[in-house]
Amino acid sequence: xxxxxxxxxxxxxxxxxxxxxxxxxxxxxxxxxxxxxxxxxxxxxxxxxxxxxxxxxxxxxxxxxxxxxxxxxxxxxxxxxxxxxxxxxxxxxxxxxxxxxxxxxxxxxxxxxxxxxxxxxxxxxxxxxxxxxxxxxxxxxxxxxxxxxxxxxxxxxxxxxxxxxxxxxxxxxxxxxxxxxxxxxxxxxxxxxxxxxxxxxxxxxxxxxxxxxxxxxxxxxxxxxxxxxxxxxxxxxxxxxxxxxxxxxxxxxxxxxxxxxxxxxxxxxxxxxxxxxxxxxxxxxxxxxxxxxxxxxxxxxxxxxxxxxxxxxxxxxxxxxxxxxxxxxxxxxxxxxxxxxxxxxxxxxxxxxxxxxxxxxxxxxxxxxxxxxxxxxxxxxxxxxxxxxxxxxxxxxxxxxxxxxxxxxxxx
Length: 412
Known about the structure:
15% strand; alpha+beta; 412 residues; 2 domains
C-alpha cells in the first residue's frame, strides 16, 4: 500500500535546521525546504507530491514528528484525487523520488577530527601522569563522550552518559575481589600443604571461564550509558548464558581443531545482538554457522599461505555478513567495506603509528570510526513511534574487570 504525507504545521525552535533536514528527507533543495517551513509557520499545510511506499511511510513520519512537524499520513486508496504539492500557487514543488530512491536508507557518519582527538589525548595523558594513573577512568570517559557525540545517525548524534566516577568505583570493586582471591591463593599455597598448593594453583585458571560474565557486565554498562534522541540502549543478556555459550563453544572448537568455530561465532553473535535493545526495541540476528562454514575453511587455508594477510578479507566479509543479518524494528543494516579497503585502512594506520612513534594514534582512532560509519546504513522500516524508553541500570565492574584482563568487548 502507498501513502501520502501531509505536513500541517511546525512547532520547532530552529527553522533553518528544520528546513535543512526536511530538504534531505524529500531530496529537495535547501531553498525549497525553507519555503515549506515558512509556509507551515504561516498556517498553510503542505503535501508531498509523490507516493510513499508502505515500508517507508512509518519511519519517515516518525522522523518528521521528531523534528517538530505535525504529520498526517494517509493510505493512498482513501485520498481523493487532487492537486499534489503546495496548496498555494507558489512554485518550488520538490523533486519526485524515483523507484531506486524511494527505499528509506538512514546513514551513519562521524564528524570528529584528528587534531581535536589529539588535544583530548594529550590532556588526558598529562592528567593521568599527574594523578599517578587515577585520572585514566575520567580520560576514558572523555574520549567516549567525544566519539559518541560525533557519531551521527540520521542527522542526530549519539550521547554517552557514563562517568569517570562510575568506572573508578567499578575498578575499586574489582580490585577488592581480586585482592581477596589473591589472599586465598597465597594462603592455600603457603599454609594448606600440597593439596592446598594444587588448589591454589588451579584457582586462577578456574576464573578464566568467568570472563564471558565480565564481558556481559562491560557491554551492559556501555549500552546503558548510550542514548540517541534521548532514548537509551540496554543489554539484557544473562551472565550464565554467556558462560555456557563460550565454554561450550571454546571446548568444541578445540576438539574439532577449529571446525566448530563458525557455529560458535554465530551463537555468540546471536547472544550479543538479540539481547541488545534500543528503548523497548529488541535486536534480531539471523546468521547461521552453516552459511559461513565454507568461507571460513577457505579463509583458514588462504590465511596460512598468505602469512595471515587474507584474514583481513575474511574479517571484512564477516562484518558485512553480521550486519546484513542484524535487524532493529524491521529495518536491517548494510555494511559495505571490502577486504581491500580494510587492508588499506590498517596498512596506513600502522605506518602512521610507526612513523610518528605513536603520536598519530588519535588520528588512527578517528580514521577507524569514520571508516566504520561511512560504510554502515540502516535500511527499511524503522518505526520510531513504537520505541518506548526503558532504562536498564548497570554497574561498571564488568568494564574495569575487562580492562584488567585486557579483553575487548566490541561487537561488530
